[in-house]
Each structure stands twice: as structure tokens, then as C-alpha cells.
Design a protein that fits this description.
Largest sheet: none
Radius of gyration: 40 Å
Strand content: under 5%
Order of helices and strands: HHHHHHHHHH
Oligomer: single chain
Distance between the termini: 113 Å
Length: about 250
Amino acid sequence: MNSEEPKCGDDCKLVEMLASKTSTEQAMENAIASVRTGNISQRGAAKQFGVAQKTLSRRLNKNDVVSQVTHDASSPESAPAKPKKADQAERDQWCADHEAGESIRSLSKKYGRSDKTIAKEINSRKSNEGESEATERPPVDDQPVTPTGELNDHMKALVKRESKSSKDRLKIVAALKEIKKPLEMTMKAASKEFRFGRGIVYQDVMAAERQLAKDGNPGIRETLEEVVREAELVRKFATESLRLLQLDRGEP
């Protein structure tokens, strides 16, 4: 025989009751419910309720997928586990990798942490290191000069370091004066042209930039912006050094 008959049992009463209902959709729902009892096959239910077997099979598969997705979403076991808070060893490694040249974005992908979290840790440590260098005294003699009239070890190291640094800073000042000359020349030339009504228009500057690039020369904007960036860093480092060394008080 080509058809399958439902097996006898308590669930057969449910099959008979569902078979009495009408409408195509209701018939399909009845067929789905009957198959789920496990006492009738898809083919037998399709014949019993007068629905297409392919449609019944598709609806059963669709319901199974929806049911599984709903179960997975509601199951505590399937919920993605929150990453545990980074321990001290991991945070130390962030800073070590960053000092070695890795970017914040690279570290974020590497350790599965947010850019904000890693950047906050690194910036916090830099700030703490700066304060520590400014306020902590090394474990040596409290007085800069020992009872014998000599500098203590810390003072000797300070004088040695700054002896070289001071000479290097004078070289930087001399170099800055030389750098200032072409910058001043550019500024005065542009200013003069504006005063005499021959102001350079943006299109002329862009044409000059293109020609400089064609000739293999560095551009106007890129060189000026680079000077500004470096000059701002020089100013920042010099100003902060004065503050940390407590030489910004105006005292001789």
C-alpha cells in the first residue's frame, strides 16, 4: 500500500479531532500537529487532511528552524559570554606592545578589547609616570649636597644629564633661527603682495603645488604643516620640562 495509516493509541483521538476542522490553513495546522505527535508520517498526514505533502514538509522545516532560533536566543547557555575584565598581566602587555610600536586599533583587535579601554589604560599610565617622575625623589640623601660638600648620586646624574641636554638645546635654538628665516620670507612675500593688491588666489597656489609635485619637490602645505606640528611639539616638551623641573616659578 502506498499510504500510511495512523497507529492506534491515545494520540489517534487528537488526529481524528483535528481532521474534522475545515479551511486550508487550519487543515495545514492540523497536519503539522498530527505529524508532531509522532504517530503519523508526513505523507499520511498530507493525505488525511488533504494538503500538499511538499508544502507540509516545508512548513514543518520552517517551524523547526524558528523554534530552534527561539530556543537558542532564550537559552542562557547560548548567550555570548561577556569578556572578563582584563587582569594586570594583560594590561601590562597592552602597554608593552604599544611601546613596541603597535597601534591602539591593532591592540584592540589582538586582545578583543575596545579602543577606548586600551587607550584609557595607556594614557593613565603615561600620566602617572609623568607625575611620578616630577614628584618622587630617588632613595638617596635628602640633601643635594652631602656633609662632605659633594653632590649626592642623584644630583650628579642630574647635572650630567642636563650638561649634555643644555648644549643640545642651544643647537636646537640655532637651528630654529635658521628655520625661521625661510618661513619669515614666505610670510613677508605673501603679505607684501596682499598690501599692493596682488593677492595670491587659491587657484594660483594650487597650480604652484601641482608644479612643485611635478618637479619632484615637496609641497607648500605639507612642509608648512609639518613645521607647525614639530614646532608645537617642541613648545610642548620645553614648557612641560620647565613645569616638571619647577623652573616656571620665575625664580632665578
